[in-house]
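Ticket reopened. Same input as before:
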Amino acid sequence: MSTRLAKGGRLIDRSAGMEFTFNGKRMRGFAGDTLAAALLANDQMLVGRSFKYHRPRGIVASGAEEPNALVNLGTGARLEPNQRTTTTELFDGLAATSQNHWPSLELDIGVLNNAFARFLPAGFYYKTFMHPRPFWKHVFEPVIRQSAGLGKVPTDPDADRYEQAYAYCDLLVVGGGVAGLQAARIAGASGARVIVLEQSPHWGGRAPVDGDVIDGAPAADWINATLQALEKMENVTLRSRTMAHGVFDHGYVLAEERVADHTPGDGRPRKRLWRIRAAKVLTATGAIERPLSFAGNDLPGVMLASAARDYVVNWAVSPGDRTVVVTNNDDAYRTAIALVEAGLSVPAVIDARAEVTGALPARARALGIAVHAGRAVVKVKGGKRVTGVSIGLQAGEGAVLDEISCDAVAMSGGWSPVVHLYSHCGGKLTWDRKRAMFRPDPDRPPLTHDGSPLVYPAGAANGALSAAEALADAVETGLVAVKALGLKPGTTPLGRAEPADEAPMDPVWIMPQGAGAALKAKMWLDYQNDVKVSDVQLAAREGYQSVEHTKRYTTLGMATDQGKLSNINGLAVLAGALSEDIPAVGTTTFRPPYTPVTLGALAGEARGEIFQPLRRTPMQDWHQAQGAYLEPVGLWRRPYCYPRAGETHEQAVHREILNTRSNVGMLDASTLGKILVKGPDAGRFMDMLYTNVMSTLPVGKCRYGLMCNEQGFLSDDGVVVRLSDDSWLCHTTSGGADRIHAWMEDWLQCEWWDWQVFTANLTEQFAQIAVVGPKARQLLERLGGMDLSKEALPFMSFAEGTLGGFPVRAYRISFSGELSYELAVPAGQGAALWAALLAAGADLGLQPYGTEAMHVMRAEKGFIMIGDETDGTVIPQDLGLDWAISKKKADYLGKRGQERSFLASPERWKLVGFETLDGSVIADGAYVPAPGVNGNGQRNVQGRVTSTYLSPTLKKGIAMGLLKNGPGRMGEIVEFTTADGKGMVQARVTSPVFYDPKGEKQDV
Amino acid sequence: MLILECPYCGVKAEETELSPGGEAHLKRFGPGSSPEEFEDYMFARQNPKGVHFERWRHSYGCGKWFLAARCTATLEVFGTYPAQSSEPPAELVEKIKAKRPQWKGWK
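Engineering reply: fixed in the latest deploy. New output:
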């Protein structure tokens, strides 16, 4: 039984009881508990089922490295899956449920997988469940997917809010243990701006639990004094409950602060993502204890020795009445001693080392604890809970010499420095043979912008495991960091701990070392991903020599473990199987985040309406007041149509088109890109940008132009206006304005930097209104102020003047085929001009129209649309736009690209129109199949539709598309696939211009 | 996340303020160039593990393009200079040579 002890617990407040539920069962804990501690206090050792085999799993650790005890936390809109019970602070009313089992935690059908474990070895999905083939998709995969996975994804929108904040400092100290605090104090005294981050709510790390003595007093005294000193320094910021989870280029560090995780719903943001820029980073991230690989090391009740000690000392929770300690080092004796001092029974310490001589074992022996040297745990006995261990020789093959009954096992395989943050940005490790661990290589640290080291590891994170070593290392490293910042150290009291008299550890990767296959198939390396010693050895036998390949094949160290518990044991087993040295095998790459970061924190405030900034035209309020149906166009929200009561969107679009073609319509074209190109060399520049000649465009005239990229593919189009002798106004597509402006600047700044040209993106300076239809002139003349006659302002020309008192530029350009004026006014007057037009045109039948009517009308007219007829592989010549390509110009952007031989092939797909024989509308994106199949067994194709609409003007389906040698096949009947892919529809190849092919209507 | 100093406005700009523009000092080949020259200009890039010259634009700052010399393996930045440069400044080349004796030069 695990239970709450009557006395002790340095972190709990026994006067503040709290109630919580686990799988609906009511339980009690205290303020200061972690959820894991509270669960253990309620004898809830079984907390989850394993990922693959659904084996019962208990709490293994007491910190961020916990692999098993992940729960669904909260309910409804506050449900968060995969929350670590060991780092979750208990609060009153907390509700948690266990994961990955069906129907219940106690009775899980999935445990059948355990019985069939031999069919689920490493990489099983590559080699079993293959035949018969349809079974994978319909039987095996659904069943495997159902039984795998951890928590459930929440379905409700998150009820909490999250925020992000920026911070800057000279030195970021990650880790608030004794090493971090010491280093921070040294840096603080030097005048450096220091931020200290601590993952837990408590400062001081393991020192108080381990009973360390600093400056002759308990570690807690030194910790408190140091904290007080740091709090007094204005240049030092202390932040607890904050996990630095990634170090990135040039000192960028992301950290997640758990602001209100433990006080849900109190109005504060649940989490705060810190985006920190530090000149230097000092990682005092400590070390993580390694499990030992013995059979049954995953049974509930087997935990890390340090965790057992933490639960007893910090929370007064005993993991069991009788705890067997199994170790290869002296540190685990601290656990045996702590347990006995708490009044619990330790029937034996099983020590793999042949000789056990240190001071700590001596103290344990003095307390009456039996120490068995040279022994191994052969097997842990029990089902859902440890009931005992069988003991054999570590040097042997697993013959059982003795059996000890117990209800908990505390294991220690030594310690691994937490090198994750040090490694994220390229820091390299070195193998410390004496201590059997990878630690930061002082000669190969991660570098920052000036080539100097970025990260300075200190204390246990640097391999200095004991308090005495860690403090000394923190002093040394702190001074190095201060010097690297160009500062002078101030006067700082330096803490000193008594050197610990610890005998060396003895690396033990498999226990017992000669264990056979049956035992090895029950030795877990990675609890979270269910990877065993036998899996890694199988991978090695199957030829996986690289540790990175083995990781992916076996899933060792994947997911949230990120190598915290499994790394060293796994690669040591791999090295053994390959008969290689451990450093020759190396480690896998440590990647951020160190611990999972909730998506809400990464999103921060960017959700809902402020997910992204939206762009508004000056007439946006009017559109929305009219109930316009909006569609996204880049960051704009343009009216798609203006439906009237009872109208469908399609009916509205058709009404708008017919009204525009017979009366007059009005479009908010303000989103159209408007880029001014001005200067003595502007004409020359325009001729390079566009495929046709723009320098010869007379002042007051408009010309349609095409822009291509250097490969020759069509990139953007629009009407160019010659405003004056040295200035051109380039209209671009709505979505392309920023891109094209950047494109112009790129060429001007980086290639033709001696040309005297300025560009300015005026898109938002002007509101633009297209007034379109046979009555357009009549409407504008009512406003009065300028001559709009055909003679004064012919098609494809422009004039500046006033209309109804508004200063306007009037362009005679048409994207619909009708008589059309586009009016540009200063943005601030756009809404007023729009209203003035509406008032003046009421009796002419003036109606606004949206983007869909615009699209249909341009398709009726055979005008191309960038993004519909183009996809980045289409040259203007494919679209019959040869007339807009200058033959005379020596050069323009894309000219050389278009000279490539394959672009001249008669096999190119070229633009044509399509008319279905039955008048129906061809499906969007439909293909014209060709006989035969290609190399992949797919049907050959010879063309596809690019724009397809029901034309209300022509009362039939019309389409444009690209067809192999299209212009040479006029009148031919081709077949398109239908939307459901089952039928075919016949269509005649036609000119893409369906409406007014002579252009008489627009030129009046 | 890189920090590059914009040589125009002097701002030490974070990567979110910048837009990358690929390899620097490419020579444009237009009409009349051979297929090999054009292919090289269009598609062939050095992609070294080590010293690299790059184009960056201070898009959310002064809007200027500039060039940067940095080490792709260690993230060290050797320097930035205006885009209106047909080759890296001599002192920058010297600085890189001093720091990377094995480096074969910028061309």
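Chain B touches chain A at residues 1-3, 14-15, 19, 21, 28-33, 35, 38, 41-42, 55, 57, 59, 63-65, 71, 73-77, 83-84, 99 (CB under 8 Å). The helical segments of chain B are 35-43, 90-99. Please confirm and we'll close it.
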